[in-house]
Amino acid sequence: MAKKSEQIYQEILTHIQNGVFGLDGPLPSTSELSTMFNVSRPTIAKVYSRLKQEGYIDGSQGAKYYVKQFDKISSKYIFGILAPRLDQDESRIILDSLYSEIASLSNQYQFSLLWAGMLTGSYDVQTILSNIENVIINYKKNNLNGIFFSPLEFHPYAKRINEGIITCLTKYQVPCILLERDYCVFPARGQADLVSIDNIAAGYIVTRHFIKQGHKRIAFILKSDSAHTIALRIIGYKQALMDANIEYDNNWIIQASQIDENIIKTLVKLDVKHVVCGNDFTAMQLLSLNQRHYPQRRIFTISFDDAEYASHLALPLSTYKQPLVSIARTAVETLIQRVNDTTLPIRTIYVEGELVIRNSSEVLL
Asked: Do residues 176 and 244 share a domain?
């Protein structure tokens, strides 16, 4: 709920700054906003308490709140987050953390942030694109200057949806920064600035960790319809094996729509115990299934992202940490540059991550 509170805080603050809330009277009640955002009243009360502490509003819990010194509240830029995703999108945890890091920079860089969630699970492509266009239109009504866009993954029509979004942003002349992933398949490059880790290098680094331990049978497991970042990580994985003169087996790359017992059986058949996983969620699922079906046969994993839960599992995950603070700051600065100079060439900006070694890749003593 902490991330949801941050999103609500940013939306209410933006409405205050744009005069949507509080210009001609009191702010909406906690009851009204709890219904609007589908959260509890205490959650809204905490948001109002924060806004009061920061000097944006005045009033007290149980009474009415009013905007305080509205004419002194201003933002130089209005930015938006565009984050279409499935209801159970496993990347949502790491991305929501990234969006919160971006939101935390709003005062320092003088921008307001519009943040609308968009689920895409049960609609046809045209309906999805129509809904997203409506979000962009609403953003433009709030004098939007630019967008942070995380391309959709784990959707069978992700390519069409992502390309449709870029077409829509171009139509409405909205500058865009791609967060963490491109919407094009390597080596093609999308028509927008990209801020991310170097995924090829990350794939190389995590694989080399196993190689340095003397292991020569290393698999790579990924989910179907994963983001193009996973394909880049596989390139790095293959290069690390090649540089170590390890004869690569095509069967070592295992792609599946879900992580299930069949994957565990495949690893047993291949006699592979060391696995690079496309992300932390895949690694967590793999370890859990292996413990359930083959408790006497240890699997060693290393993955990517360093999601919040990675260090708190029964077997903490070794992972390549996404530097969310640095990605957020670099993305904000890059979007400001793009807004102020639309003639700049398309840029790819890599932010260095960090290999974090925990028990999932080590022999427990």
From this structure: no
**Domain of residue 224, CATH code:** 3.40.50.2300
Helix axes 92-103, 324-340, angle to 10 degrees: 60
Strands 57-59 and 300-305: unpaired
- Please enumerate in sequence order all residues whose Cβ is within 8 A of that of 39, keeping only pairs 6 or more positions apart, or say none: 1, 4, 5, 8
- One domain for residues 226 and 296: yes
Q: Side chain identity at 310, as an amino acid letter?
A: A
Secondary structure of residue 200 in the 3-state scheme: helix
Task: Determine the pLDDT at residue 70.
Answer: 44
Per-residue DSSP letter, 351: -
Q: Tokens 């049978």 correspond to what residue? A: 217
The total number of structural domains in the chain stands at 3
Interval 309-321: pLDDT, tens: 999 999 999 999 9
Q: Are 351 and 197 in contact (CB under 8 A)?
A: yes
Same domain, 215 and 277: yes
Tokens 């010194």 found at: 69
Q: Is 363 helix (H, G, I), strand (E, B) or coil?
A: coil
**246 or 51, which is more confident?**
246
Q: Which range marks the domain in which residue 136 is found?
A: 77-197+325-350
Tokens of 332: 């904000």
Q: What percent of the chain has pLDDT over 90?
A: 56
Buried b (16+ CB within 10 A) or exposed e, 157-173: ebbebbbbbbebbeeee
Reference 75, options 135, 145, 24, 28; nearest CA is 145
Omega of the bond prior to 84 within 30 degrees of 0, cis?
no
Query: Which of the four pLDDT bands, split at 50, 70 and 90, describes residue 107?
Result: confident
